Automatic annotation (TrEMBL), chain A:
Belongs to the potassium channel family. D (Shal) (TC 1.A.1.2) subfamily. Kv4.1/KCND1 sub-subfamily. GO terms for biological process: action potential; potassium ion export across plasma membrane; protein homooligomerization. The gene is LOC113072085. It holds the Pfam family BTB_2. This is A-type voltage-gated potassium channel KCND1. Residues 1-16 form the signal peptide. Component of heteromultimeric potassium channels. Identified in potassium channel complexes containing KCND1, KCND2, KCND3, KCNIP1, KCNIP2, KCNIP3, KCNIP4, DPP6 and DPP10. Keywords: Ion channel, Ion transport, Membrane, Potassium, Potassium channel, Potassium transport, Signal, Transmembrane, Transmembrane helix, Transport, Voltage-gated channel. GO terms for cellular component: dendritic spine; neuronal cell body; postsynaptic membrane; voltage-gated potassium channel complex.
UniProtKB/TrEMBL annotation, chain B:
GO terms for cellular component: nucleus; voltage-gated potassium channel complex. It is found in: Cell membrane. Its main location: membrane. Keywords: Calcium, Cell membrane, Ion channel, Ion transport, Membrane, Metal-binding, Potassium, Potassium channel, Potassium transport, Repeat, Transport, Voltage-gated channel. This is Calsenilin isoform X5. GO terms for biological process: regulation of potassium ion transmembrane transport. Residues 77-112, 113-148, 161-196 form the EF-hand domain. Belongs to the recoverin family. It comes from the Eukaryota. One of its GO terms (molecular function) is DNA-binding transcription repressor activity, RNA polymerase II-specific.
């Protein structure tokens, strides 16, 4: 219950007089306000700054320091005030919480100082109101991350009991940890460079003899290049296997991008070894060598910037996609236009629309090779429009990509996603907690109260104990709820007890008669169809051998009511036998949840089983829907 | 009773929401309220402080009223009953409760005579204020009371629980069996019932 509405509790209790004439039972006794004194102003001296407030204001939250008797420890007898040696600026927000019921987080304050004050005064941070909650959570997360970063830097010092495998993994991930790791890092980097260089030089033509045609060096010095390639691939293979061995989760390692690059880099070599010198496959073999260039991506382990670039491209996938899409649209449009514009001219290079694609791309990216140029006037006009618009279309998404890059660099994107997911969930959770809190407080006190009332003599200590556990406000609120219970002659229970009680009544009413009749009487249980209008399965039960605990796993049965009218005659005798506590009322909405049903065997040859037994004495009951539509649908919770 | 409208230079908009937000209401003086109600000065002061805390504009509209009242009944749905209560308090039916309405209603409930309290209850049940409680009106009230219980009750609230309760009520109250309960029948029957009489005194010392 929020503090603000605590002031309206007297009104709510007074309005309860509206229930009195309709109640059938006598009302419980109201809690008396024994120490009924006029509301007084108390002085809170926080490091010299004096705050004054009503005593009632502080009493609204009895489980905090200021609302309970804990503040008596800070009472100064001479000055008749409560003295706290804490920060007065932060105390402002805390006192405002009592006054308004909302806890705000001042933005200029340090988050850990604020947390400490809240902890001192016994206020949980989860009740910070929505306006300040996100800010609070953000700052808190930043703080925790900063602390974790500091921790990780310290963690680089070697832990005593690390297995060889863990040492190796750490060496691979952070080359600065040991000299060996650094050596390994540089050696692999060197070999990557060598390998890439080899692939490049392989294709450079070196003349065999001055007057012969040029052949690539790769074909001239075949063995040398082959040895070089073998050496590099061996190093890479050894490195990959070592990483695989050292990885804490091999499956995850194998799925990671870097390991895939590694595999792709060394695979062509092995495939080339395995393949025979067949003429057909040698063409494919040649193309495989292209994949050797992927070795250059292995550098991304050595360079942070490369990795960030990769992340940027991944994260800007939508912007890149938009760029691609708009370019494609523009290309198709302009290519079509140019094709039809140039169709008339002779010896035109624009032989088809796909052929015009090349012209459009070259023009839009302002390359302008000049191998295809329009000759007609219309073609030239459209060509100029094409080049002008190309500049615009390409320039648009670029700033977005750039800003994304800088954003990732500050690691904002990950925090955004985390924040977005958790804020909504946390908000719902908080609402649920506050709602459950007040209702569970009442049920808890009811259980306690029941225990107390069983004893005939209430001694003074028990009274005091009771008063200590529930403040006057709470006891008045509970009395109000108690009156409502007496008015309606029903009791509040919590969810668990409700389902237990439900099943018990259901099990009790389950008959032990012949199976042919069991379909009718089997439907027992009370009906709360009023609440099922939203088609939720509120309750669950299986067949008779259900366990009362662990109700969550039972499946719910939905039964659509069958329509009453003329079928009464044939089965009226069966219908009338169900007692009223087991009778089922169905609203015309049609959907009813029941507790137990055995296989509905129709007692007569009428194949339609009508499992319902509406009370015949109630002429005003709405007619039930058609039994032909009745179906036992079992759905899991 | 007249009240002062604050803020003359403010625009008077036709939109009712805007009106409520821009119109502020200051209650009559303390002495006048003391004369009209049975509360002491200090009690009025503390009542007003609580009232003003929740409704700084000085007026409670129905939505605010419903949300305040619902907070006392976390397990059920108190909005329907709050609607009826609102109509019972809003005596001039202008869609908002002022502090004077609030305090006068409370004065009847807490400090009034038994007859006055019963009259107030009758007024609550008589939804269309025609002087007769019909079965439909009573059924609506009863359903709203049962709604406040929520789903998790023991024993489970059946569909016809409200209806049966209304039947019992009418059997008790409707003397001449004409299907409606008049104010005299109501007061007469309640005065004869011990339970009701004792429960009327229950909230004497609420303030």
């Amino acid at each position: 219950m929020a503090a603000g509405v605590a002031a309206w509790l007297p009104f709510a209790r007074a309005a309860a007089i509206g229930w009195m004439p309709v109640a059938n039972l006598p009302m419980p006794v109201a809690p008396t306000n024994k120490n009924k004194h006029q509301d007084e102003i108390i002085i809170l001296n926080v490091s010299g700054r004096r705050f004054q407030t009503w005593r009632n204001t502080l009493d609204r939250y009895p489980d905090t320091l200021l609302g309970s008797s804990e503040k008596e420890f800070f009472f100064n007898e001479e000055t008749r005030e409560y003295f706290f040696d804490r920060d007065p600026d932060l105390f402002r927000s805390i006192l405002n919480f009592y006054r308004t019921g909302k806890l705000h987080y001042p933005r200029y304050e340090c988050i850990s100082a604020y947390d400490e004050e809240l902890a001192f005064f016994g206020i949980i941070p989860e009740i910070i109101s929505d306006c300040c909650y996100e800010e609070y959570k953000d700052r808190k997360r930043e703080n925790i991350e900063r602390l974790m970063d500091d921790l990780e830097d310290n963690k680089d010092s070697k832990l005593p009991n690390m297995t060889f495998r863990e040492t190796m993994w750490r060496a691979f991930e952070n080359p600065h940890t040991s000299t060996m790791a650094l050596v390994f890092y540089y050696v692999t980097g060197f070999f990557i460079a060598i390998s890439v260089l080899t692939n490049v030089v392989e294709t450079v033509p070196c003349s065999y003899m001055p007057n012969q045609r040029d052949i690539p060096c790769g074909e001239r010095y075949t063995e040398a290049f082959f040895c070089m390639d073998t050496a590099c691939v061996m190093i890479f293979t050894v490195e990959y296997l070592m990483r695989l061995f050292a990885a804490p989760s091999r499956y995850r390692f194998m799925r990671s991008v870097m390991s895939i690059i590694d595999v792709v880099a060394i695979l062509p070599y092995y495939i080339g070894l395995v393949m025979t010198n067949n003429e057909d496959v040698s063409g494919a073999f040649v193309t495989l060598r292209v994949f050797r260039v992927f070795r250059i991506f292995k550098f991304s382990r050595h360079s942070q910037g490369l990795r960030i670039l990769g992340y940027t491209l991944k994260s800007c996938a939508s912007e890149l996609g938009f760029l691609l899409f708009s370019l494609t649209m523009a290309i198709i449009i302009f290519a079509t236009v140019m094709f039809y514009a140039e169709k008339g001219s002779s010896s035109s290079k624009f032989t088809s629309i796909p052929a015009s694609f090349w012209y459009t791309i070259v023009t839009m990216t302002t390359l302008g090779y000049g191998d295809m140029v329009p000759k007609t006037i219309a073609g030239k006009i459209f060509g100029s429009i094409c080049s002008l618009s190309g500049v615009l279309v390409i320039a648009l998404p670029v700033p977005v990509i750039v800003s994304n890059f800088s954003r990732i660099y500050h690691q904002n994107q990950r925090a955004d996603k985390r924040r977005a997911q958790k804020v909504q969930k946390a908000k719902l959770a908080r609402m649920r907690i506050s709602k459950n809190g007040s209702s569970s407080a009442f049920l808890h006190s009811k259980r306690n109260g029941l225990n107390q009332s069983l004893e005939l003599t209430g001694s003074l200590e028990e009274d005091q104990h009771l008063k200590k556990t529930t403040s006057l406000l709470e006891s008045q609120h509970h009395h109000l709820l108690h009156c409502l219970e007496k008015t309606t002659n029903h009791e509040f229970v919590d969810e668990r007890l409700y389902e237990q009680g439900y099943l018990q009544t259901a099990l009790q009413n389950f008959p032990s008669q012949s199976p042919s009749l069991s379909s009718e009487e089997g439907i027992t249980g009370t009906c709360c169809s009023r609440r099922t209008k939203k088609n939720i399965p509120p309750l669950s039960a299986t067949n008779t051998h259900s366990h009362t605990h662990n109700l969550q796993e039972l499946s719910a049965l939905h039964i659509q009511c069958g329509e009453q009218h003329p079928l009464n005659t044939s089965r009226s005798s069966l219908n009338l036998m169900s007692d009223e506590s087991g009778s089922l009322n169905c609203k015309s909405s049609g959907l009813v949840t029941t507790a137990i049903i055995s296989i509905p065997t129709p007692p007569s040859n009428n194949s339609r089983a009508n499992p319902d037994a509406p009370p015949p004495a109630n002429p005003d009951a709405p007619p039930l829907p058609n039994p032909g539509t009745d179906v036992v649908r079992i759905s899991a919770l | 009773m007249d009240h002062r409208q604050c803020g003359a230079p403010r625009l008077k908009c036709a939109d009712s929401d805007l009106e409520l937000a821009m119109v502020r209401h200051q209650p009559e003086g303390l002495e006048q309220l003391q004369a009209q109600t049975k509360f002491t000065r200090k009690e009025l002061q503390s009542l007003y402080r609580g009232f003003k805390n929740e409704c700084p504009s000085g007026l409670v509209d129905e939505e605010t009223f419903k949300s305040i009242y619902s907070q006392f009944f976390p397990q059920g749905d108190a909005t329907t009953y709050a609607h009826f209560l609102f109509n019972a308090f809003d005596m001039d039916r202008n869609g908002s409760i002022r502090f004077e309405d609030f305090v006068i209603g409370l004065s009847v409930l807490l400090r009034g005579s038994v007859t006055e309290k019963l009259r107030w209850a009758f007024n609550l049940y008589d939804i269309n204020k025609d002087g007769y409680i019909t079965k439909e009106e009573m059924l609506a009230i009863m359903k709203s009371i049962y709604d406040m219980m929520g789903r998790y009750t023991f024993p489970c609230v059946k569909d016809n629980a409200a209806f049966e309760h209304v039947e019992k009520f009418f059997q008790k109250m409707d003397r001449n069996r004409d299907g409606v309960v008049t104010i005299d029948e109501f007061i007469e029957t309640c005065q004869k019932d011990e339970n009701i009489m004792s429960s009327m005194q229950l909230f004497e010392n609420v303030i």
